[in-house]
């Protein structure tokens, strides 16, 4: 069974920085003073577990496609690991070749809004509907025929009953996480590795980032975490739906 969204999940991922924004947008919150997402008040269920359960892990990467996405794909391929990429609509539209590469490697896609506005749970209905629907359409177009987008992850984990309903009406599930190493804040590779190792339990969903800034620490951490996961007996899964 899916777990509720962790209300104490900390950190506000950096906003993606598209090269050609379609419309002017306010910057994301100051990452130097992150705020925890508001308590989950939605009527639905925000997923924080894998589809299969047991000794499985779902790796998820937010805010891309970005400069680090290709390196992450190379690492995942080395360990035959599958992952879910939660994409900013504008970034997907700007790099359809990378979206297609992700799909060709057997990974899956998740909608992460057009502009990464925060606090997402406070958006009026029309704005939330645009951010979710337009991003999904951008990702579908970038991926080409047959592309599927199975989940929506609200920026900062800002779920509420309204955006969960919008998400469900589009045939997507609301995706949270159970492990947050705060890699967006670049705390250092050892800190990222340690946080994942301490927080992960079987069936967990790990939140990391392939976009929104310099992700060198995330790539370096993944080089250590992938072999560790294998030696710990984990297999790679997708989130529940």
Can you offer a commentary on this structure?
The chain has 241 residues and is α/β, with parallel strands linked by helices. It has a domain at 61-214: TIM Barrel (Alpha-Beta Barrel). Helices cover 33% and strands 13% of the residues. The protein has helices at 69-78, 89-94, 96-104, 125-143, 161-169, 189-199, 216-231, and strands at 56-64, 83-87, 108-111, 149-152, 173-174, 204-209, 235-236. Strands 1, 2, 3, 4, 5, 6 and 7 form a seven-stranded parallel beta sheet that branches. Strand 1 (56-64), helix 1 (69-78) and strand 2 (83-87) form a beta-alpha-beta unit. Helix 1 runs parallel beside helix 7 (216-231). The longest helix has 19 residues, at 125-143. It is globular. Residues 1-43 have low confidence and may be disordered.
Give a short summary of the structure:
This protein is an alpha/beta fold.
Number of strand elements: 7
| CATH class call of the domain at 61-214 | Alpha Beta
Task: Report the CATH topology name of the domain at 61-214.
Answer: TIM Barrel
Secondary structure class reads alpha/beta
Mean pLDDT: 86
| Name of the CATH architecture of the domain at 61-214 | Alpha-Beta Barrel
Shape: globular
Report the total helices. 7
Question: In what range is the share of β-strand residues?
Answer: 5-15%
Q: Which parts are unreliable, with pLDDT below 50 for 5 consecutive residues or more?
A: 1-43
Q: Can you summarize the main beta sheet?
A: 7 strands, parallel
Helix content: 25-40%
CATH superfamily of the domain at 61-214: Glycoside hydrolase/deacetylase
Radius of gyration, taken over Cα atoms and rounded to an integer in Å:
16 Å
Order of helices and strands: EHEHHEHEHEHEHE
Kindly report how far apart the N and C termini lie: 10 Å
């Amino acid at each position: 069974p899916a777990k509720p969204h962790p209300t104490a999940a900390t950190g506000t991922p950096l906003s993606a920085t598209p090269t050609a924004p379609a419309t002017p947008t306010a910057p994301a919150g100051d990452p130097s003073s992150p705020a925890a997402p508001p308590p989950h008040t939605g009527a639905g269920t925000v997923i924080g577990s894998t589809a299969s359960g047991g000794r499985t892990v779902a790796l998820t990467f937010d805010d891309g496609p970005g400069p680090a996405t290709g390196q992450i794909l190379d690492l995942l391929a080395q360990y035959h690991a599958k992952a879910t990429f939660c994409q900013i609509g504008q970034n997907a539209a700007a790099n359809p070749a990378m979206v297609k590469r992700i799909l060709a490697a057997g990974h899956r896609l998740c909608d992460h809004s057009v502009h990464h506005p925060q606090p997402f749970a406070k958006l009026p209905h029309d704005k939330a509907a645009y951010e979710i629907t337009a991003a999904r359409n951008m990702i579908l177009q970038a991926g080409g025929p047959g592309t599927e987008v199975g989940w929506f992850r609200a920026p900062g984990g800002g779920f509420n009953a309204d955006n969960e309903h919008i998400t469900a009406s589009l045939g997507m599930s609301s995706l949270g996480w159970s492990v947050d190493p705060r890699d967006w804040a670049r705390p250092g590779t050892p800190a990222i590795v340690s946080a994942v190792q301490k927080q992960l339990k079987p069936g967990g969903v790990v939140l990391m980032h392939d976009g929104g800034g310099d992700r060198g620490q995330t790539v370096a951490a993944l080089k250590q975490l992938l072999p560790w996961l294998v030696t710990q007996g984990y297999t790679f899964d997708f989130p529940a739906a």
